[in-house]
Every structure is written in structure tokens, then in C-alpha cells.
Amino acid sequence: MSAKLDTTKRITFIGGGNMANAIIGGLLANGYPPTNIIVSEPFEASREKLQSTFGVLTTTDNAAAVAFSQDPKNVTTPADLVMLAVKPQIMRDVAQGIAHAVQKHKPVVVTIAAGITLKDLAKWLSSDAQGNDISGARSPALVRVMPNTPALVLEGATGLFASSEVTEEQKTLAFNVLGAVSKSAFWVEREELLDVVTGLSGSGPAYFFLMVECLAAAATELGLPSEVAQGLARQTCLGAGRMLVDTAEDPAELRRKVTSPNGTTHAAIQSLEASGMRQAFKDAVVAATKRGEELGKMFSQPTVSGPKL
Ligand SMILES: NC(=O)C1=CN([C@@H]2O[C@H](COP(=O)(O)OP(=O)(O)OC[C@H]3O[C@@H](n4cnc5c(N)ncnc54)[C@H](OP(=O)(O)O)[C@@H]3O)[C@@H](O)[C@H]2O)C=CC1
Ligand SMILES: O=C(O)[C@@H]1CCC=N1
């Protein structure tokens, strides 16, 4: 997926937390030169870890990072792509803080924050902290993406949506950067669908972790030693996942192949259907999707303080 990744481009990360680390790790595993990556991160220990683990450049100055410089007075070639990898509740402040630099250097700006809309992001990147328009009526080139934590092991699943200002070259760059950590990446036709992607694959890893917790706990209650139950449950999840990917067979067909008539699986599936498993998963995906929409609305306004995420 990353075969066409252009390693000469300069990439800036604003925020050096979990997701930034995952994506940087994937880029480096794909041969990206660490000196073409700069991370702006306020926490000193995180910066030191980024430097020692990856050898990337770091700074505490977000606007300087957009200029791809540790010193804003000494800018040679600015960033081609700026990835906003901060929590949704601080996105507004962060975006307004780099608005001048984005307007000046014109990178494609990629946001991974749940719920935050491109309309809001465009507004924040076009105004200073006092709300004055600094855009000169030019909207920035924006891409909204939703990756997931399996990106950490280069097995991510990612949805993407680009604003109309994004060029084909910028789209390819954004796709390939996310592709460095994703086995599956798709453009969606409408931005709202990214909330559905969040409900499916963004939050999805947690559903599988919960399932492994439940399976292992049940088997432990029935007498298996905890480490044996954990080991079997984890590998069952991984093995089933590998079959889904490697065979590309319909999941319902794969399920049928495990299910002997009136056998053990048949009994288990009947029990799951009777417990309302289908509805429970539907409700979960709907709840996460709605929450994504809510977060976008909640953090759209400056005066509203939302939950800690
Ligand atoms: N975790 C997940 O499964 C997924 C998360 N996302 C999205 O990714 C985004 C980041 O999440 P995640 O990596 O988990 O969060 P983290 O908290 O791990 O990372 C955010 C980083 O931003 C830093 N930061 C805080 N304030 C600023 C600032 N003003 N300027 C620059 N950096 C700052 C934080 O530093 P400090 O620690 O010092 O506060 C932290 O290192 C979120 O918007 C989330 O919605 C998307 C897909 C999946
Ligand atoms: O729970 C969240 O809000 C983030 C977004 C998707 C996964 N984690």
C-alpha cells in the first residue's frame, strides 16, 4: 500500500501521543527518513521518547513545526503535510494557533480527531485567536481521516475524506501516509460517513478486546487456568481475523464452516442470537457514530467545555 510513498515530502505532526507514534512508526518501517518528520509536542518526556525511538525532529512550537523548523526565523522548506494528532477538545485552539503558518506555507492539513468537521477546521485555520479572518478568502486544503490503534502494529484500518481544495498529489500523499500503517484504507464519498467509520473501525478494536475479555472470563469460570483461557481467546481472535483477510470469504460462510449441524457451535450461536447479539452490535456502532457527531458539535463552540477525552 505504501509502495508509492514519496519519502522526500516533509511531514509535521502536531501532538506526539499514541496515534502520532503509531503513524510515525509505520512511516519509518516503510523507509521514511526520520529527518523528514517533525513533531510538536508539549510534554518533554514524550519529545525525548520520540527522538530516542525514532530519531525525528521535535519542537514545542506548533507554528514552527508547520514551517518544518525548530526555529521559526530559520525556515528553508516548509511541511508538505501537517497531521493534527491532538484530542478533539483542543483542536480549535491548536488550529487557530497555527492558522497564520498554514495560510503562509499552504500544506495539506490532515486531521485524525474524532468528530471534528472540516467546516470547523477550515474556519479555525482561517482566523486568528481573536476571530479575525486571515484567509484572504482562500480555504486551506484539508483531509479528515479516521485510523485505528492497530496502526501500532501496521494493521490499521482507515477511512479518509478530502475537501475540494485538496489536489490529487496531496490526496495521494495523505493516502500513502495513512497507508503506511493501514492494511485497509478507503476514501468515503461524504464527510458524515467518517462518523460511521469511527463507529465501525475507529472504535472497533475495543469491541474485539471486550469480546476476548468476555470469552476468557467465561472459560476461566468454567475451570480453565486464566493464562490458558487468555492465550486461547487471543489466538482465536487473531486466527479468525487472519482467515477473514486471507480467504476474503463472506464472514457468514466462514461461520457456517465452523458450525456443524446440531453441534457445539450451533448451540453457541443460537445462544448468542437469543441474547440479542446482532442488535447489541448494531446499537454499539450507532452509539459510537452518534457520539462522533456530538463531539463535533460540542467542540465547535469556544465557550462549551466538553468531557475529558
Ligand atoms: N486512540 C484511538 O484509538 C484513536 C484516536 N483518534 C484520534 O486521535 C487523536 C489523538 O488521540 P491519541 O493519540 O489517542 O491521544 P494522545 O493524548 O495520546 O495524544 C495527543 C497528544 O497531543 C499532545 N498535546 C496536547 N496539547 C497540545 C498542543 N497544544 N499542541 C500540540 N500537542 C499537544 C498531548 O500531550 P500531553 O500528553 O502532554 O497532553 C499528547 O501527546 C484524537 O483526536 C482522537 O480522536 C483517532 C483514531 C483512533
Ligand atoms: O474513543 C474515541 O473517541 C477515539 C476515536 C476512535 C477511537 N478512539
Short description:
Residues 191-295 form the Pyrroline-5-carboxylate reductase dimerisation domain. The chain has helices at residues 18-29, 44-54, 62-66, 91-105, 118-124, 168-179, 193-202, 204-221, 226-247, 251-258, 264-274, 277-298; strands at residues 11-14, 37-40, 57-59, 81-84, 108-111, 142-146, 156-162, 182-187.
Largest sheet: 8 strands, mixed
User: Which CATH class of the largest domain?
Assistant: Alpha Beta
| Helix and strand pattern | EHEHEHEHEHEEHEHHHHHH
Q: Do you know the CATH architecture of the largest domain?
A: 3-Layer(aba) Sandwich
Ligands bound to this protein structure:
NADPH dihydro-nicotinamide-adenine-dinucleotide phosphate, (2S)-3,4-dihydro-2H-pyrrole-2-carboxylic acid
- Taken as a percent bin, the fraction of beta residues is 5-15%
Return the CATH topology of the largest domain.
Answer: Rossmann fold
The separation of the N and C termini measures 31 Å
- Tell how many strands the DSSP assignment holds: 8
Helix content: 40-55%
CATH superfamily of the largest domain: NAD(P)-binding Rossmann-like Domain
* Cα Rg: 22 Å
